[in-house]
Structure formats: C-alpha cells, structure tokens
C-alpha cells in the first residue's frame, strides 16, 4: 500500500468518475473537480448510478459508504492538500497544459504526484507546464474503469523513478489493477496496436473484401476476441477512433495510422457508433 490517502480527480466525465469511484472504493478520500454546477450534478449522478449498480451486484457492501468519501466541487483550489491528482478533462492540449500550470501553483505537498489520464497528449508537454516535471506522469485507465484491470504508466523523460514506482504501488496495491510501462509516445501500447488493427478492418470493409459481420465474426470465433474490430470501433466511438488515429499519424507519419475515407465520411455524417445509435451496426 502507498501512503496516498488524499486523491484529487479533475473532470468527472466517463473516465474521471470511474477513477474517482475506484479510488473511493479503495478507501481513499476523493475530491472531484468539475467545470460547472451542472457538470457537478452530472458527475454525482454518474457516480451514484455506478455505485448503486455495484451494490446491487454485490461487488460493494454499501454505495452510500463509498459516496461519503467523494466530494464533487467546482473549485480547483480545494486540491491544495492532495497527495495525488489525476487529470481527466477533455482531450485538449491547451486546456490540459493550462490546468497543469494552475495545479502546480495550488498543490502544496512537494511530493504530490500530478498525473494525467490523457490518451494521446505527450506527457512531456504537461510536465514542462509545471515547476515539478519529476512528479508528473501519465496514468492511463481503460473504459469502463471499475471493470477493466489495465493501467498504462507513462513516465516522461523527466519523471523521477520514485514517482513512477509510487504510482505503480497506488495502481496495483491500492486499486488492485495491473500496470504496464509505456514510453511517452502517442498511443502508448494498447492504442498504438489497436487503432491500426481497427483501421485495417475498416479498409477491408471499404474495399468489399468482406462484410462487417464476417470480419467481426472472424475475430470472435477465429481469434477469441470478445468482439470484432468494427463492433469495438462502434463502442469506442468513430470520432474518438479517428482522433486517436490522427494523433498517431501526427507522431509517426506512418500510412497505417491514416483514417480511411469510409471512417471520415461516417464521422462527417454523425454515424459515430453506439452513442448515436448507428455506426458499422445499428443499435
Ligand atoms: P468526458 O467528456 O466524458 O469527460 C470530461 C469531463 O471533463 C467533462 O465532464 C467536463 O465537464 C470536464 N471538464 C472539462 N474541462 C474541465 C476543466 N477545465 N476542469 C474540470 N473539469 C473539466 O471525457 P472522457 O472520455 O472521460 O475522457 C477524459 C480523458 O480521459 C481524456 O483525456 C481522454 O483522452 C482520456 N481517456 C478516455 C478514454 C475513453 O475511453 N473515453 C479512455 C482512456 C483515457
């Protein structure tokens, strides 16, 4: 176990609320900072719904006991006493760097870790926005956070080894997840492999090589994947899939990371997958 007891999470959306939930379930005192009163309510509702579900499935004894350990607020200054802050706001480089600059001035403990859940922004850009780059690293969770076991730990060139090791103990011993180590490169390990795989499946569909159903069934039955690449793209969201592809291409300039025209047309049409009711499949 770590000595980390006071955790801050910035952004209470899909990922931030999940990170707050698993931290509070591990007994931590958690403060979530959101951007407006309406977003605070939405984050609270998301947390309550998820914890009630966990309670009804017998995964936790009492949702209320966990909720008591979580405050959701608008004021960033309340993070002053935190030992670990995990940023999970929208994927916008300017917004994140500005936030790290402010956070650096607010958090008083010189040993505190300032982490980001970013999927594609270089950790170094966040680290150099602070006066303590040795204490900044990427801690990349997977959706849904309470269910998926993996966390990618992403130190930048300037992260102290002690920071990475403390974050590893938090993730593994305190939260009960599994950590893998990644370099500070776009896509880290999982997305750098997954996204070109999904893009290849889209190219296969686009060229008339096979149907969506057959491509997906091929992977489910032939490679024991829980779902095929096109169904997975619908789950991730086609806009998100394309955004990650763009950041991979931006970093590596490899054709395998370019978005196929079919993906571009679907995003332009608003066919984003499950969240809009239609992507490669209709929901
Ligand atoms: P989301 O859109 O569900 O949540 C973002 C939240 O941040 C919103 O509730 C918004 O109100 C809040 N926010 C925006 N600006 C803020 C600010 N300045 N201060 C406080 N709160 C602010 O997004 P999601 O999906 O939770 O993603 C968050 C981060 O996690 C992004 O960096 C994303 O790349 C990363 N990520 C997303 C994954 C996914 O599957 N969606 C997986 C792993 C990482």
TrEMBL record:
One of its GO terms (molecular function) is NAD+ binding. Keywords: Oxidoreductase. GO terms for biological process: fatty acid beta-oxidation. Pfam families: 3HCDH (PF00725), 3HCDH_N (PF02737). Pathway: Lipid metabolism; butanoate metabolism. InterPro entries: 3-OHacyl-CoA_DH, 3-OHacyl-CoA_DH_NAD-bd, 3HC_DH_C, 6-PGluconate_DH-like_C_sf, 6PGD_dom2, NAD(P)-bd_dom_sf. The record marks 140 as: Important for catalytic activity. This is 3-hydroxybutyryl-CoA dehydrogenase. It comes from Nocardioides caeni.
